[in-house]
Amino acid sequence: MTAKVLDGKEIAQQIMEELKPRIASLLEKGVFPGLSVIILGQNPASMSYVKSKGKACERLGMRSETIMLAETVTQKDLMTIIAKLNTDPKVHGILVQLPLPKHIDEDTVLEAINPEKDVDGFSPINMGRLLAGRDCFKPCTPNGIMELMARYGIDPAGKHAVIIGRSNIVGKPMAMLLMQKHKGANATVTVCHSRTKNMPSITKKADILIAAIGSPEFVKADMVKKNAVVIDVGINRVEDATAEKGYRLVGDVDYEAVKEVASAITPVPGGVGRMTIAMLMLNAVQAAENFAGQHNAA
Ligand SMILES: NC(=O)c1ccc[n+]([C@@H]2O[C@H](COP(=O)([O-])OP(=O)(O)OC[C@H]3O[C@@H](n4cnc5c(N)ncnc54)[C@H](OP(=O)(O)O)[C@@H]3O)[C@@H](O)[C@H]2O)c1
Fold it and tell me: Collapsing DSSP states into helix, strand and coil, what is residue 104?
């Protein structure tokens, strides 16, 4: 039987609808939730992600600001901009679009973002809170995957989840979220990476297989256990002369073949990517609510 499609577009839309009354309530209190996105250079993929984030804010009636900087901007100038945003009461969420040019130290930049405005959840403070299972801004992509599974009634408890990829923005926080001693988590987690030996023998044991590699259609049907849940995080541009833009987007999973083996699967596009944006909006609204709470209490 062909796998059930986990429709990130539809679930993301539901989440966005649920945010509307929360935003209305903030506006009543005189708080206009605002997200500032900083982008360095003009990498086409990054530009397209930033555009989607701005559009999502627009759809929700949130304030959004895109700060476009030259790829050659100095670390010092970037830090000055972040410092200003950190203390600006109109800005509730700050996001620096990754990856950064080589001359910029990513760790220093992420560490500079006020943790209360770190809606990407990449600052060491939020990462540490996540590791400890405490309340925090959770990284949007892995958190979107948790939410997508929850809304489709997929409970990771006691399941073997295998993640391919150990990046700080996807693989590692994904492992943290799945292994938490919390409702909706409690999975047994294995993380694979480029040094993993005999990977198919591991992925074949996964009840939940999450691919975050950045390699087009890397996961083949013979790497997947029958009836596994397969989550495809990858977004890869592959040349396609028949496509209007000259390329098409594919995931890290060989979708057509794997959907015949899996019980559920996310498509690319229309899967995890949509959830990422929705969770970013959720974090931004949460940041504005936290601000409103502190403002009222003061
Ligand atoms: N849908 C979304 O919203 C969203 C969000 C973020 C990222 N993405 C996409 O997700 C993918 C991964 O992103 P990322 O930022 O996590 O990438 P990344 O930082 O490049 O990390 C890739 C990971 O995959 C591992 N890997 C690479 N080749 C491998 C191989 N042949 N066998 C096993 N493991 C391998 C790497 O191992 P090592 O650590 O050993 O190098 C690394 O841990 C990309 O396609 C990206 O565009 C999508």
Answer: coil
> The domain containing residue 92 runs over which residues?
30-114
Per-residue pLDDT, 297 = 54
Among 261, 276, 144, which Cα is nearest to 206's? Answer: 261
**Listed residue (264, 257, 281) closest to 19, CA to CA:** 281
215 C-beta closer than 6 A to ligand 1: yes
Query: What pLDDT band is residue 1 in, cutting at 50, 70 and 90?
Result: confident
CA dihedral 224, 225, 226, 229 (to 10 degrees): -70
Percent share of the chain, pLDDT over 90: 98
Mean predicted confidence (pLDDT) in 22-50: 96
Res 287: pLDDT: 98
Around 128, how many Cα atoms within 13 Å sit in the side-chain half-sphere?
5
Residue 283: inside a domain, yes or no? Answer: no
Mutation pick for ligand 1 pocket among 52, 146, 233, 253 (CB with most ligand atoms within 8 Å) = 233
pTM for the model stands at 0.97
- Is 29 tagged catalytic? no
92: Cα within 13 Å, side-chain hemisphere? 27
Q: Are 216 and 236 a contacting pair, CB within 8 Å?
A: yes
CATH number at residue 91: 3.40.50.10860
Which residue matches tokens 């949007």? Answer: 140
